Amino acid sequence: AQKVTQAQTEISVVEKEDVTLDCVYETRDTTYYLFWYKQPPSGELVFLIRRNSFDEQNEISGRYSWNFQKSTSSFNFTITASQVVDSAVYFCALSEAGGNNRLAFGKGNQVVVIP
Amino acid sequence: NAGVTQTPKFQVLKTGQSMTLQCAQDMNHEYMSWYRQDPGMGLRLIHYSVGAGITDQGEVPNGYNVSRSTTEDFPLRLLSAAPSQTSVYFCASSFSGTDGNTIYFGEGSWLTVV
């Protein structure tokens, strides 16, 4: 069965600090997909990134970066130079190939950026 | 392009009442699903569908019913609402295939059962 663990529940940072969110996953499949979603205070889920299990390259998108390490089953997310608009809940999720796009979510990280 | 549309956005129900949360997508996606979000629990899968006429249970299906008569619509029915069903409900859709397609979510439906 697939499982996603996000250990930290709430993380507070001062604006312009970096923040890293840890995501550890479990799956028996060799082909799987990892996602990060952002949920701002307004409540909607915003897609941030999708990564397949065969692509271990790190990715950077603006102030966001992701570090995928199959050896440790981790897909960590870093926000560089945080801003107040980054205050949100961030979810890591996993779907398995052939799993009909069913997502297993972590419990989420509440990020609070203090101005 | 409306994407995934959920209605209603907010609803208050009395225990024992029934209601239907509507979900529609205009992207011709084969896959649709319903999740519920509870504090500290992340999102959990209730039911999903891989195409019209095909549905299956997810992690927390009890107390909910679904049907998929068209590709566009995937309503979620609460047969006899209970306070434990107070939650935020999200509908999602995506294309089929095994390449980890992007999964699109609706804006959520806030349901309170009193």
What does this structure look like?
The complex is a heterodimer of chains A (115) and B (114). Chain A is mainly beta and 115 residues long. In chain A, the strands form three sheets. In chain A, strands 2, 5, 6, 10, 11 and 12 form a six-stranded mixed β-sheet that branches. In chain A, strands 3-9-8-7 form a four-stranded antiparallel β-sheet, with no helix packed on it. Chain A has a two-stranded antiparallel sheet with strand order 1-4. In chain A, 0% of the residues lie in helices and 53% in strands. Chain A has no helices and twelve strands. The radius of gyration of chain A is 14 Å and the shape is globular. Chain A starts with a strand and ends with a strand. Chain B is mainly β. Chain B contains no helices and eleven strands. In chain B, the strands form two sheets. In chain B, strands 2, 4, 5, 6, 9, 10 and 11 form a seven-stranded mixed β-sheet that branches. In chain B, a hairpin with a 3-residue loop joins strand 4 and strand 5. Chain B is globular, with a radius of gyration of 13 Å. The interface between A and B is medium-sized, with 28 and 29 residues.
Shape of chain A: globular
Major sheet size, sense and barrel closure of chain B: 7 strands, mixed
Q: Of all protein chain pairs, which has the greatest interface, and how many residues does each chain bring to it?
A: A-B, 28 and 29 residues
End-to-end C-alpha gap of chain B = 36 Å
Instruction: Tell me the structural class of chain B.
Output: mainly beta
In round numbers, the mean pLDDT of chain B is 92
Q: What's the total helix number of chain B?
A: 0
How helical, in percent, are the residues of chain A?
Answer: under 10%
Low-confidence stretches of chain A: none
Task: Give the number of helices of chain A.
Answer: 0
Instruction: Report the count of strand segments of chain A.
Output: 12
| C-alpha geometry of chain B | globular
Mean pLDDT of chain A: 92
User: Which sheet architecture does the biggest sheet of chain A show?
Assistant: 6 strands, mixed
